[in-house]
Amino acid sequence: MSSIHEECGVFAIYSKDTADVAMQTYLGLYALQHRGQESCGIVVNDSGVFSYHKDLGLVHEVFDKDTLAGLGQGNIAVGHVRYSTTGNSNRSNAQPLVVRHVKGPMALAHNGNLTNAYELRREFELGGAIFHTTNDTEVISYAITQQRLVCSSIEEAVEKAMDKIQGAYSLVVMSPQKLIAARDPVGFRPLSIGRLGDAYVIASETCAFDSIGEDFVRDVQPGEVIVIDENGIRSIGTHISQKPHICVFEYVYIARPDSVIEGSSVHQARIKAGEYLWQEHPAPADVVIGVPDSGLDAALGFANASGIPYGVGFIRNRYIGRTFIQPTQTERTNSVRIKLNVVKETVRGKRVVLVDDSIVRGTTSRRTVNLIREAGAKEIHVRISCPPFISPCYFGTDIDSKENLIACKMSVPEIAKEIGADTLGYLSVEAVNRLAENSDCEFCNGCVTGNYPAPIPNEIRKDKFEFKIKK
């Protein structure tokens, strides 16, 4: 039932020897496709010569055999899949961003959202900088290149730039000789290190390692800078100061179920969410079903805990992206109409528990509940595996204002009536904070509590860098 806008996924690889790093990056991005479906790109480094291709579309649409072959061989590559939380959906905003400056070329890709991007951009523009995109990544590039003029190495420049940029960023930077990874000091977004032989990989999620046969090494620590070059891998820890405050919605919705984040299985976290939902909001029912995909594991947990049979309630059209990916509400609504089809035999004449991850505006939820009702369900008890959204997200998930959040306008019974459910139950904040019990981390749950682990801007600037040219 979600209409959540997420942000991006990053992938990067360093091999001591020349290899088909473009294909490996392609496979890694394919595994991260769920994190962004608007655009994607790959940059390959062959002895300091950068070749790149990026465009709007899914990974398999942007890259074919000939396109990948055109990128050539190399020993370093960075890749990115994008959903826009800052900047319009157009080709110029696709990442990775390639920058050419006095110290040589540099390619960047990042996942997250800077909270001081607007102020930094104004500062750079007043100093003479010219921007070609409307995304945060170009702001980060200026912060790094500014420091690169006075620093002796690219890693030192990244380290110093971290003193200026604020907010959420899991970042990969490629120079002619090095691959750099950095994670913001709060640790909002995941970033992990993998290895296969002499090759190292950096990725937003561990599922990307599985796609190319890499072994998981460890997570990048909050505030840590990782440097990979011909001498191996090393860490710069000057900004490491606290446990991660990972976005709790990574476990609820964003991440792929087969990923492990901060030591906890996403699949198991969602199973626990369903178990906790049964404890907090039991319902008399004949069958439990989940909304594909992120509602399925929670539904299974609810069924296991309650003893109510689990059923396949929906068949999903696999050729349609996640509903939240669509940039406009009209497109999101149209996508729901063809995205899901009800297995009528599962729900006809039955009391149904319908489990999903969230309700944002309520429009998608209403449509989904109506599909079940039209299929002959006798009762529909909706259970949501996260608490109600009551505040904006400033750190990369596009929950942009309270006026768009149904929980800021209605009580739970009113929301149930609005979406057509007989009953509605949300997972509590206390329960959602216990989903990743194997992780030694805290959570950012500001969107459901209003309390954030880092300073927030005074206002949300939607499309804060956009401008129109008068003809």
Give the structure's gist in a few sentences:
The chain has 471 residues and is an alpha+beta fold. The chain has helices at residues 21-31, 59-62, 65-71, 117-126, 136-148, 154-161, 207-212, 249-254, 266-280, 294-306, 329-339, 344-347, 363-374, 412-419, 429-432, 446-449; strands at residues 8-19, 39-46, 49-56, 74-82, 97-101, 104-114, 167-174, 179-183, 192-196, 199-203, 215-219, 225-229, 232-236, 245-247, 260-261, 264-265, 287-290, 314-316, 340-342, 351-356, 379-384, 423-426, 442-444.
Task: Describe the fold and architecture.
The protein is of the alpha+beta class and 471 residues long. It has 2 domains: 8-242, Glutamine Phosphoribosylpyrophosphate, subunit 1, domain 1, CATH 3.60.20; 264-449, Rossmann fold. It is 29% helix and 27% strand. It has helices at 21-31, 59-62, 65-71, 117-126, 136-148, 154-161, 207-212, 249-254, 266-280, 294-306, 329-339, 344-347, 363-374, 412-419, 429-432, 446-449; strands spanning 8-19, 39-46, 49-56, 74-82, 97-101, 104-114, 167-174, 179-183, 192-196, 199-203, 215-219, 225-229, 232-236, 245-247, 260-261, 264-265, 287-290, 314-316, 340-342, 351-356, 379-384, 423-426, 442-444. The strands form 6 sheets. A 7-stranded antiparallel beta sheet has the order 3-2-4-1-10-9-11. It has a 6-stranded antiparallel beta sheet with strand order 5-6-7-8-12-13, with helices on one face. The chain starts with 7 loop residues before the first strand and ends in a 22-residue tail after the last helix.
